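Hi support team,

I've been running sequence recovery on a batch of backbones for a student project. Most finish fine, but this one hangs at about 90% for roughly twenty minutes before it completes. I'm not sure whether the input is malformed or the queue is just slow. I've pasted the structure tokens below so you can try to reproduce it. Let me know if you need the job ID as well.

Thanks,
M.K.
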């Protein structure tokens, strides 16, 4: 008998058809539909992204074997609960690394050169005379780039900075990375040191109890007043209220954000700040990369439901129980 798979959020039609060859496939449009889908019968696999899935949502999911996430971050899943239930969680690292690093670099460049602000200024018909220092930005090349979390994406951002823009690289992480230090001529510092010495601080740590509000009022206060903060990790890693204050008071020069404490975000004090560039969580949102992530997630799901080891497992220990 075919196993049942629920798709939460969107998946390309050809991938749905591919899954339908081996599984009964149910596609959901909204999180509110999950409870009915689980009540209708055993669901063996879930595939999707972005939904909060924990005890409240999954308690009725008897027979659930795997959740295949179309993302590398997995902070929206209650991992302790999945472990307790013996439910495997898979994710899609690597295939989104370069694309997300491209976005981080884009945010560094657009904030430094005030691209969004000056685009708006020009479209508003303000370019009628010469430009003065009030329109100038700051250099990126040759500056110091601080990476908070030198993992896959952090290293890819650091390579862009080091080899594309001749930047000095500082970093912090849980542990030192001797190979990357050699490759990037990078220096390890504790968090405070990175914040104090960097011209650009790029946040790329996973969201966890340890990294929630890692960058708050105190940390923003350590940064140079000429420095720029970029967050492509998860919104709650940065205290947004403290960031608004720091940007408004000129405590730091500017910020570039891809991620927010609340998502989606249609209203925010952030939007009133001209020294902020904000984009709606598009780190991995290119046609090529979203396709690669979806294919990898489908592969992870298929392998898990056939009893084979998926390519990327967050909690592989549950397979041996
Ligand atoms: P990764 O390879 O696991 O790297 C994470 C890095 O963070 C590691 O170097 C780790 O250090 C470091 N780290 C963890 N906790 C830390 C702490 N408390 N203090 C300092 N460093 C810490 O992950 P990745 O693939 O680069 O992705 C990172 C995160 O980016 C994901 O978890 C996800 O939330 C986010 N992301 C966002 C987008 C987007 O669309 N904006 C796209 C992809 C990913 P150790 O190696 O020493 O443990």
């Amino acid at each position: 008998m075919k196993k049942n798979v629920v798709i939460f959020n969107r998946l390309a039609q050809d991938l749905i058809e591919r899954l339908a060859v081996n599984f009964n496939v149910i596609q959901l449009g909204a999180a509110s539909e999950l409870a009915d889908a689980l009540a209708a019968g055993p669901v063996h696999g879930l595939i999707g992204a972005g939904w909060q899935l924990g005890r409240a949502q999954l308690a009725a999911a008897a027979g659930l074997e795997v959740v295949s996430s179309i993302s590398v971050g997995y902070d929206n899943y209650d991992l302790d609960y999945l472990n307790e239930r013996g439910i495997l969680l898979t994710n899609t690292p690597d295939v989104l690394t370069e694309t997300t690093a491209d976005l981080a670099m884009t945010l560094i460049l657009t904030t430094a050169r005030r691209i969004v602000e000056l685009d708006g200024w020009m479209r508003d018909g303000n370019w009628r005379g010469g430009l003065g220092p009030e329109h100038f930005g700051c250099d990126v090349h040759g500056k110091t780039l601080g990476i908070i979390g030198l993992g896959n994406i952090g290293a890819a951002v650091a390579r862009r900075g080091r080899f594309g823009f001749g930047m000095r690289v500082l970093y912090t992480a849980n542990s030192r990375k001797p190979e990357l230090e050699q490759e990037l001529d990078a220096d390890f510092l504790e968090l405070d040191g990175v914040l104090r010495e960097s011209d650009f601080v790029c946040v790329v740590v996973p969201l966890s109890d340890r990294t929630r509000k890692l960058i708050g009022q105190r940390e923003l206060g350590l940064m140079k007043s000429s420095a720029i903060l970029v967050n492509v990790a998860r919104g709650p890693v940065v205290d947004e209220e403290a960031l608004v204050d720091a940007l408004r008071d000129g405590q730091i020069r500017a910020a570039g954000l891809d991620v927010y404490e609340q998502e989606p975000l249609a209203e925010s004090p952030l939007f009133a700040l001209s020294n902020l560039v904000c984009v709606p969580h598009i780190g991995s949102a290119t046609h090529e990369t979203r396709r690669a992530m979806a294919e990898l997630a489908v592969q992870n799901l298929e392998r898990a439901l056939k009893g084979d080891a998926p390519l990327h497992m967050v909690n592989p220990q549950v397979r041996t129980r």
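--
Follow-up from support: It reproduced on our side and the slowdown came from queue contention, not your input. The mean pLDDT is 97. No action needed from you.
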